[in-house]
């Protein structure tokens, strides 16, 4: 019998001699529970196929340049659940996110015929896998295997997203908040563009919120410029964040 | 945010340390060890165990784990920003106006200014 997603994460975190915070283990277990289950726009098998491309891209010791098709170059295994153009897009987002442009995005959508919301869910999967696997790699703990894909249909839950001036993708503006977005919007006078970016798929907002709270700074503590867990100072966290972002050539 | 959190504590900070040599400073303690952890995770995975050990040596295991978690978080945030074409509002761009050219950030493909 296969392990549950939560037990996969727990066994990796607990097998090391490191005392990993329980809330961090719980956050990674939470996104692993969602990883191969039916999502909002993709089913479990499709989500797992996307996750497998992310893992291949992260592991690629000789990555293809951004402008080369990773699937054509043999860097991604063919998977009938995912069109090669979409595999290439997932690979590029995982490996070369800093090179993406609006023209690339429009061209990718023409080739793959995916909706904005489907793309947001792709990002949801990419960030889940990148967070969990990169944390394991950095901390030197066992790498979690993927869970088994679950049967079932995507929820196809629409949100009142509209074009946005700070994104390529439509977002749900604060005045259009729905019950599904209340946990992420309510009580906040403004929502940073990078937080709002995923709002057309609340399940992706959930991933962002759960991971940020455990890996970095809880959103509601962002205004406290001296917030700390008692380990890294706020400035040390910002320094690590800035240095990683610079390596990734992320202007934002 | 690093500049803001330093200013809030009246600490001087040379922001070039974000991209360049990470010298020790009052604003960011153990900057060199933290930078080595980040750099080795991107540029030289074989050096990662030594970078981890060096950070534990000057801090402790819990701090090292939290630094790994922050890296993981920004493996997430960078892909959200660049995958959705997120750009700063004009007032934010004004606030960081002097910073991006001095650090070379405006040369990034992702500089959607």
H-E string of chain A? HHHHHHHHHH
The proportion of residues forming helix of chain A, as a percent range, comes to 40-55%
Q: pLDDT under 50 segments of chain A (min length 5)? A: none
Class from secondary-structure proportions of chain A: mainly alpha
Give the biggest beta sheet of chain B. none
Radius of gyration of chain B: 16 Å
From the spread of the alpha carbons, the general shape of chain B counts as: globular
The low-confidence runs of chain B, each spanning 5 or more residues with pLDDT under 50, are none
Overall morphology of chain A:
globular
Assembly state: heterodimer
Question: Between the first and last Cα atoms of chain A, what is the distance in angstroms?
Answer: 44 Å
Distance between the termini of chain B: 18 Å
Strand content of chain B: under 5%
| Radius of gyration of CA atoms of chain A, rounded to a whole number | 18 Å
Helix segment tally of chain A: 10
Largest interface: A-B, 68 and 71 residues
> Roughly what is the average pLDDT of chain B, rounded to an integer?
87
Average pLDDT for all residues of chain A: 95
Assign a percent range to the helix content of chain B.
55-70%
Count of strand segments of chain B: 0
